[in-house]
Amino acid sequence: MSLSDEDNLKRLGSCIIHNQNIPLSLLILQHSKSIIDLRIRYVSLAMAAEIGVKEAFSSQSTELRLLIENLPSPSIVKLTSDKVFNPIFGWKIPKELRAALGKGMECRNKLIHTNGDSIPELSNQVQHLLNFTYKWSRWWSCE
After folding, report:
1. Model pLDDT for residues 38-55, shown as the tens digit of each residue
2. Nearest-angstrom CA–CA distance, 69 and 64
3. pTM, entire model
4. Number of Cβ atoms within 10 Å of the Cβ of 59
5. Buried b (16+ CB within 10 A) or exposed e, 97-117
6. DSSP states along 3-27
7. How far from 68 is each of 2, 59, 83, 90, CA to CA, in Å?
8. Which CA distances in Å does 6 have to 2, 23, 90, 118, 143?
9. DSSP one-letter code for 140
10. What is the pLDDT of residue 83?
11. Helix (H, G, I), strand (E, B), or coil: what is residue 46?
12. Are 68 and 54 within 8 A, CB to CB?
């Protein structure tokens, strides 16, 4: 269900050709890969995931965009749940991906608020989540 690297490159190229903005979450994800400090990289990857989900919701309607922009933000776990995500987008994010992202956000919070002892891998989960949301989002269509 995820997009191949070639498909992602085509979509990014289309955004550039049509003079449209590249999604902030993709820019953050790309930048995260170059961060050497693992703690900062992890926080950046978690931020890319949260922003990507919020960008997808914002793209669906003006009302959702206003809610995302003006109300305290629910957790990524709640935003990607079957009760919230599925009715709006018409498909489900796999529960294994949601669980991994939930654990990732808990780890992110520990890294921000403490020294954090261990830093798990999150980049694959973030990439899969962004692939899911962009594949089905009207907003990601730059053509």
Report:
1. 888 888 888 888 888 888
2. 9
3. 0.70
4. 17
5. bbebbeebbebbeebeeeebe
6. PPHHHHHHHHHHHHHTT-PPPHHHH
7. 25, 11, 17, 19
8. 11, 17, 25, 33, 16
9. G
10. 92
11. helix
12. yes
